[in-house]
Amino acid sequence: MKEKIKLPKSIDLDDLLKNLRVLSWGAIDILKAYAKGEEPPYGFPKALSVNDRDGGPVTAADLAVNSWLIDGLESKFPFASWNVISEETAKDQKVKDNHLNCKWTWILDPLDGTKDFLQGTGEYAVHLALLHRDKPVLGVILVPELEEMWIGLVGHGAWLEDRLGNQKSVSFSNRNEISKMILVASRSHRDKNLERLIESMPFAEKKTVGSVGCKVTKILKGEADFYLSLSAKSAPKDWDMAAPEAVLKAAGGLFTHANMEILSYKTDDFCQWGCLVASHGKNHDLICKIIEKKLSLIDPSFIV
Predict the structure, then answer these.
(1) Does position 54 have pLDDT exceeding 60, yes or no?
(2) The pLDDT of residue 2
(3) What are phi and psi of 107, to 5 degrees?
(4) 178-298, CATH topology level
(5) Residue 304 to residues 18, 30, 272: CA-CA distances in angstroms?
(6) Where are the domains of the chain?
(7) How many CA atoms lie within 13 A of 129 on its CB side?
(8) Confidence of residue 93 (pLDDT cuts 50, 70, 90)
(9) Roughly how many angstroms between the first and final C-alpha of the chain, as a whole number?
(10) For 206-252, what is each residue's pLDDT tens digit?
(11) CB atoms < 10 A from the CB of 148, how many?
């Protein structure tokens, strides 16, 4: 039996999805215009300026989509009782305080995979996740270069949608033996521990992909079976993981720490420390046990 979909008071699901579709395709159009060097829609500046910060490069495209999404949510739902956090606003201490105490929170990543966006790999995404008391309720993953919009309602289901509203079901692979599974791993966020862990795992094939959202959609399409993230000197952030977790969980998959603990979105630094494992759910616990055992040999001090 499907769970009842939780939403803030006065928010209608059909109306929410209708407006999210408009915002999502608008975000895709903005990013694709910047990627092609064309005039972005909605009056955003054409020049793709790039600035560097501690967490990596920030482009005019990041900022444009950030503004488009936040302004859109505020204008469409002016009285909604939710807080909105994005990668571009999270350094605001007031936002952090509100995040820790707010019942409903949007966590947005206007451009996940900025390096891939700049390098032209096409493996970048946009993430939108609505959380209720630290638990993802709704997630959207946008893959602009593939014209893909993935929507997940936790406890209800997930699907792929195109611009015409046509929907396709999630198609997890039937691979359930780890020796036959395909791992999808990061292209740029790697260290020696992760390399050693990947080399020690008994999977059949490894694919390297950019954005976390793109990695998870590989699992949703059956092109891969599991993904793992290993923090080092730094860690992925809430906006990297929240929407991918929501969509994958809605589809029936799992996204946990290697010790099977659930992800938490209530830390004041927004960091996702440890070893995180995403899969289609088949033998997820066994995958985690193997990873945990391998990690204990590679680095006994690592906290999963």
Answers:
(1) no
(2) 59
(3) -120, 120
(4) D-Maltodextrin-Binding Protein; domain 2 (3.40.190)
(5) 39, 38, 10
(6) 13-169, 178-298
(7) 28
(8) very low
(9) 33
(10) 999 999 999 999 999 999 999 999 987 788 899 999 999 999 999 99
(11) 20
